[in-house]
UniProtKB/TrEMBL annotation:
Protein's name in the database: TCR/Tet family MFS transporter
Job of this protein: Resistance to tetracycline by an active tetracycline efflux. This is an energy-dependent process that decreases the accumulation of the antibiotic in whole cells. This protein functions as a metal-tetracycline/H(+) antiporter.
Signal peptide location: none
Bilayer topology term: Multi-pass membrane protein
Length: 421
């Protein structure tokens, strides 16, 4: 039997590979975020309400594809290893950006979203990779690497995307495609496999490689159903950012793509500070459940600031509070990964990706249509921040659920857990 990578001296190097892969992935994603809504708006006649509805439809088709396909990729990673799934996802991302760069119409953008939604599993596979190479008591901190990569990518990506978008709305997509494909080549050459053959599932099980079968895992271990509900509510609330952030700030404060990119850069800087410097000490002091609770409280408060801020400066100040919501995902993933065995980590990440896909179906519709409604009824409603109020209420519901979830994880060695870890 080969030595488990979790106890191998190469573990830190493997985590470094995952961090760089995730960083490049997010950097390419960040390039296009400030310009995609503007590109959609330019193809939809220039109206904010129409663009909000089209953006909602784009997000929904992406979510449908991820909801259907992510459990398959999760099961594939349990059967054949994490590395091929990560590489498939990265190359799929590059193809998606090429389609968006060439898009002459909204229907081409739809096709690109379908391709990306079908392969969007790089972060879930990276989560399973981290669970493979990290002992249980260090997973929350290690999962923070993914969040740190996300924030670090957003320091440069959106700002650069905003500047490039002022030159040509298609240019950021070409740059993003190049970065994603280079990232895939990097992983192809240097990323080692984390799941040895003896720890893989013996066969590919179609009964588990579908959204319903994948989500059944969440009901097979104590506490996982409630943690799954928290994950759903948190991700649905977070979906407000990609769904309406650009359109909302442009409508509310008149910000252009460059200003929005700089604001996202500020958000990334604050996120890196929290994730790279503060998550470890906070998790050590509050433990994983306490970190999730603290993060959800900050999430609720930040949405209140974003929804009600009378000026752009007050809106921007909410980013300092929102940065601490980065505590939620590492703590939550640490709690969930302790409740399943080594051969189920990919299935767990597939279930989490299915939850993400489900929120990506619901979120753009919920927030896009509520923004369109608020804009059209501004004279009587006087609340353009309605979508952000809804997101804050969802985060508050998640807080109530985690408060009802027990503090301790199951002892190592109970059914469903791998005593080796």
């Amino acid at each position: 039997m080969s030595e488990p990578i979790a106890h191998h001296p190469a573990r830190k190097a493997a985590l470094g590979f995952i961090f760089i892969t995730a960083l490049m992935d997010v950097l390419s994603l960040g390039l296009m975020i400030p310009v995609l809504p503007s590109l959609v708006k330019s193809m939809a006649g220039g109206r904010t309400d129409d663009a909000a509805q089209w953006t909602a439809a784009f997000g929904m088709v992406w979510g449908v594809m991820q909801f259907v396909c992510s459990p398959i990729l999760g099961m594939l990673s349990d059967r054949y290893g994490r590395r091929p799934v990560i590489l498939i996802s990265i190359f799929g991302l590059g193809i998606d950006y090429i389609f968006m760069a060439l898009a002459p119409s909204l229907w081409w953008l739809f096709l690109g979203r379908i391709i990306h939604g079908a392969t969007a599993a790089s972060f879930s596979a990276a989560g399973a990779y981290i669970a493979d190479v990290t002992p249980e008591n260090g997973r929350a901190k290690a999962f923070g690497l993914i969040g740190a990569a996300w924030s670090a990518g957003f320091i440069v990506g959106p700002a650069l995307g905003g500047v490039l978008g002022k030159i040509d709305l298609h240019l950021p997509f070409w740059v993003a495609a190049g970065m994603a494909l280079l990232n895939g080549l990097y992983g192809l050459l240097v990323l080692p496999e984390s799941l040895p053959p003896e720890r893989r599932v013996v066969r590919f099980d179609w009964t588990k490689a579908n959204p319903v079968g994948s989500l059944k895992l969440l009901g097979s271990h104590p506490d996982l159903p409630r943690l799954g509900v928290v994950s759903f509510l948190m991700q649905l609330a977070h979906n407000a950012y990609p769904s309406i952030f650009v359109l909302y700030t442009g409508y509310r404060f008149g910000w252009d793509t460059a200003q929005i990119g700089l604001l996202m850069m500020l958000s990334g800087v604050l996120g890196v500070i929290v994730q790279a410097v503060l998550i470890g000490p906070i998790v050590d002091r509050l433990k994983e459940r306490g970190a999730v609770i603290a993060g959800l409280i900050c999430f609720v408060v930040s949405f209140g600031i974003f929804a009600l801020a009378p000026t752009g400066w007050i809106f921007a100040s909410g980013l300092a509070v929102s940065a601490f919501s980065a505590l939620i995902q590492p703590g939550l993933m640490g709690m969930m990964s302790k409740r399943v065995g080594a051969s189920e980590q990919g299935q767990l990440q597939g279930a989490n990706s299915a939850i993400m896909g489900l929120t990506a179906i619901v979120g753009p519709v919920l927030y896009g249509l509520s923004l369109a409604f608020a804009v059209r009824h501004e004279q009587s409603l006087h609340l353009p921040g309605l979508p952000l109020v809804i997101a804050g209420l969802l985060a508050l519901a998640g807080l109530f659920v985690i408060l009802r979830t027990r503090r301790a994880s199951l002892p190592t060695g109970e059914p469903g857990l791998d005593p080796v870890r």
